[in-house]
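Late entry, written up from scratch paper. The run itself happened at the end of the previous shift, but nothing got recorded in the book at the time, so transcribing now.
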Amino acid sequence: MEPQSAVTTCYRHPKVESHVRCTRCERYICPDCMREAAVGHQCVECVKEGARSIRQARTAFGGRITTAPVLTYLLIGLNVLVYLGELVRPAIVDRFAMLGAGLRGPGGEHYLWEYPYPSVLHAEGVVGGEWERLLTGAFLHLPPTAGTFGILHIMMNMVSLWNIGRVVESQLGRVRYLALYLLSALGGSVLVLLIDPDAQTVGASGAIFGLGAAYYVMARRLGADMSAVNRFMAGLLLWLLISAGLTSWQGHLGGLLAGGLVTLAYAYVPRGPRRGLLHAAVCAGLLVLLVLLAVGKVTQLA
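Output as recorded:
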């Protein structure tokens, strides 16, 4: 009977001779599979298992700590990309702007909503089943020569998103930040639908007002110096009043209220293993409320 070979090999690379054991599982590992540890070396699998068991750092509001405001950059890029699309095909604005209720003629002409309406006309807007307008309008902006602001519309909104979004995203983490942004945009559109359904509106202002409300709530929760924050909010509210005669104040106010409500939940729900679940429940509850309000208004109009 031949004696058993005393040569030991790596458990991942059987053809590679090895004489070093992993300090956790004690399997033999070759130099390619060695990972530095506090004592000795560990294998690749033990390192991965140890990383999973380490509690991930979180922000004060429960979000994952991020090294760069990637979502803010993506949102700015998406808005700019859509704006370039508008310049190539202006009809995009007409089709996807926020519009609660309107009528379209056989030649493409637009009329104010009335019900019942002649058979030659067709309903358009949310009341016509175009529910996507509740969100798509928040990614559109005025054409360069249209309205009071023209190209300044998207420029001011993107500068505001750059300044506020980076701060809010770093505190909330990407998932909570995205939920806040979209719910603020939706809240602005729903308030437009409820108060002024005949108006066609575009712009990310509702979402940005929601971020402004989040910035204020977070600063209060963190005990920051409120002098600069209060000046910021005073300017935001002043713009809300001024915009009443120039833009859709309903969209601004709706975004402000929705964003403030979501961030209050983020900030004041007690810490614990269920905090993330409670945050999700509040966001889902607000989403359901906004949808019910929209459905109720459409039912009333029709």
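The chain has ten helices and nine strands.
(Scratch paper discarded after transcription.)
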